[in-house]
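Record type: monomer structure entry
Structure origin: computed from sequence
Chain ID: A
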Amino acid sequence: MTKPSLSLSLQFADKRHREHLPRHKVARWIRAALESDAEIAVRLVDADEGQALNRDYRHKDYATNVLTFDYATEPVVMADLIICAPVIEREAQEQHKTLEAHYAHMLVHGALHSQGWDHEDPEEAEAMEAREREILAALGFDDPYAP
């Protein structure tokens, strides 16, 4: 079985972690979560932009780690993944993870959202977290939900 194709746009409005996100790694992490071909834009933002987007589109007035704007799932997945660099940095420190591991997790998480995965109820959350663990283990990362 061939891997899904990925057209990737990688944008750095916040450049603080650019060295942790080389294009080939970002593409590999996202592609690992894809079940079909995709066109995905990843934009790294600062806390102000992250908060404004979360407030304007989700009505939650704080910066969050990843926002997924999914536009289509067939025949090609089309989505924007917004990653808030300061939130990722803070969470990685709090969770005792490397920046690379946390970015990989959030990109896999966002890519799954772009394909319809969700975690609104406990059953969905359990299924999504299991899929994330499986993908990240295949990529060589530890369980992102381990204490």
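Annotation 1: The first helix runs from residue 23 to 33.
Annotation 2: The mean pLDDT is 95.
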